[in-house]
Design goal:
The structure is a homodimer of 362-residue chains. Chain A contains 16 helices and 2 strands. Chain A has 362 residues and is an all-alpha fold. The first copy, chain A, has a single domain, classed as Farnesyl Diphosphate Synthase, CATH 1.10.600. The first copy, chain A, has a two-stranded antiparallel sheet. In chain A, strand 1 and strand 2 form a beta hairpin. The first copy, chain A, is globular and about 60 Å long. The first copy, chain A, starts with 8 loop residues before the first helix and ends with a helix. In chain A, 53% of the residues are buried. Chains A and B meet through helix 1, helix 4, helix 6 and helix 7 of A and helix 1, helix 4, helix 6 and helix 7 of B. Chains A, B: Belongs to the FPP/GGPP synthase family. Chains A, B: One of its GO terms (biological process) is isoprenoid biosynthetic process. Chains A, B: It comes from Amycolatopsis jiangsuensis.
Chain lengths: 362, 362
């Protein structure tokens, strides 16, 4: 593993943590205000009030931190910019709400997924009709609200109209890529085994761009950074986004549910054509390929099958190879930052974030 | 029925029709471009390419026409403003896509609903996994894309940033009210029989504001109309929106499926607490109340039950009363317009639109 610790890392880490704490507070307060504005006194007040502010404040705010760091590459520390960055967490929560419905995932951030919480509320209150369907509909609509509120949080951040107009193309790109990426993912079935290039393409469009590159470019555009800075951030974001997703895919197979907060092997159960599965298929020998075809063909992927999947994937060498890919990408990301001559604090923060994205255990 | 035909009505109707034709072309072209931008060459290209441009161009563009007429209360005819108005049709299509999934509606605009079209594509291509689930997920994501693209169509309409910034609060209000209204609707079950005031509240928040009032105010805000014009449009929009929904609710029960393009009695099947049902409950005598309770308590609402519903509703006098309510509201809407001293063309167009919203058969 490339060592990415630098002398100024502790200070940058502390700065990121304190920015994140403030941003989390902003996000929670904004949604609390919206719930009050739109739901007070209505029948639907109770589930919305209790659930939403905590739901939106429960994540790592990775995208907001990239956006704020991007801002700091060209602008001074600013409460308004931090609020503008916070909108990306609401946008992310929109995606999570819809994702969990579509994937039928029961857990999110160590809590029952939003649709599950709404379904429970429906049951506890003895409402008629199928509770699961109610939960899914409520979660889809909650996602819709969050997508709209995200943008409102941006527009009401306190940044001036010109700054927001400057960042709008990348903001729209980010949002479109997110929805389109999910759509492409739907028709992407592990049993059809896409090629490694296909997987990289989906990663770039979906998680990679969405998690690192576009948030950074968005923050930098808000601040009016010169094009060469945006380009350097684009290189860093592109390769680090891939590394982020490789780590995510490894955790999806080998992660500890007690730490990740998600059931073990969920990606395998859902037959996602993740980087680790596709790389394993490309690296497999004849016998392994046969075994892999057998696992892909199972109608039900139970715990025993997950165990066999893990052994097989490890045998192909794909996990080790992915670790090397992660390592190389982190190195290239850091080089891009070094060459760009960024201000000291955001440069150090980007090094810390590169570590957090790729060394994480959840 | 109040006669709303005026001497300048034919000219205004022709102007509305030609504006709508151009707007429909704009909407279709914008989505065709987005599909090309994001889907060309991907596995998901085929369903997206064939389905979306026609889907978004298949409606009456009522909200866009209100928005453009609102614009014309303060601005000159403008291709850019017409494109900005067109964004509301994309927003509407977002809502339809999600709505049909949540309601399990199989038909929309005389075509199979989007989720049904996607499910069929999934089946025809022999993809594995449940086709219905795929269709629903694809439709939810399509809705998400349309919500994002709607705003992009607004921002790229060619109107200047200041105009768009002026209209943003009402735009955000419109979008939030839409999602929140749907959410409130979810917990609104006919078997709990809300009061007439509750029904009016939901109508105002959901369909009324969303269909007439906010689009008008949005267009007027884009054009920078003075506050007294926006206020008059708000009055017109508020009462006409209610009348629109009353007509919609009557069509939902008594409409001809061959004309409406929706199965007869869908609202009754879904136990929606619509204006006609709630008003009937308030007007019912003792015997009718008993019969109504019996119908509300049915687990399955079949064609025979729909027939009994129709007879019962008519017996209570609720449909006739609603016709009177529609009439009175149209009259108040037209008065508000007469008093506001609007330019001749939008004033005449608003009178024509009042008729189209409330005399329609689909």
């Amino acid at each position: 593993m490339t060592s990415i610790a630098k002398p100024d890392a502790p200070e940058a880490a502390a700065w990121l943590d304190s920015s994140r704490r403030r941003c989390r507070g902003d996000v929670r307060a904004f949604v609390t205000d919206r719930v009050r504005e739109y739901f007070t006194g209505r029948a639907s007040e109770i589930p919305a009030v209790t659930v939403l502010p905590e739901f939106v404040a429960g994540g790592k705010l990775l995208r907001s931190m990239f956006a704020y760091t991007g801002w700091c590459c060209g602008g001074p520390e600013s409460d308004a910019a931090l609020r503008a960055a916070g909108n990306l967490e609401l946008l992310h929560c929109f995606a999570l709400a819809h994702d969990d419905v579509m994937d039928g995932s029961a857990w999110r951030r160590k809590q029952p997924a939003l649709h599950v919480q709404f379904a429970r509320w429906h049951e506890e209150h003895g409402l008629r009709g199928p509770a699961a369907r109610f939960g899914e509909s409520a979660a889809v609509l909650t996602g819709d609200m969050l997508l709209v509120w995200a943008e409102r949080m941006l527009c009401e951040s306190g940044l001036d109209t010109a700054a927001i107009a400057r960042a709008r193309p990348v903001y729209d790109m980010l949002r479109s890529e997110l929805a389109v990426g999910q759509f492409c993912d739907l028709v992407n079935d592990a049993r059809e085994l896409p090629s490694w290039d296909d997987v990289l393409d989906v990663i770039r469009r979906k998680s990679g761009n969405y998690t690192v590159r576009r948030p950074l470019e968005f923050g930098a555009a808000l601040a009016g950074c010169p094009q060469q800075v945006i380009d350097a951030l684009g290189v860093y974001g592109g390769v680090l986004g891939e590394a982020f997703q490789f780590r995510d895919d490894l955790l999806g197979v080998f992660g500890d549910p007690a730490v990740t907060g998600k059931p073990a092997g969920d990606d395998l159960r859902e037959r996602k054509a993740t980087s680790v599965v596709v790389l394993a298929a490309e690296m497999a020998d004849r016998r392994q390929r046969g075994e892999l075809a057998g696992l892909l063909d199972l109608d039900v992927v139970d715990d025993a099958a997950i165990g066999r999947w893990r052994v097989l994937l490890a045998e192909t060498g794909a996990p080790d190879q992915l670790e090397k890919y992660i390592d190389a990408r982190v190195r290239r990301a850091l080089e891009a930052i070094d060459l760009a001559g960024l201000p000291q604090r955001p440069a150090a923060a980007l090094a810390v974030l590169a570590g957090r994205c790729t060394e994480r255990v959840r």
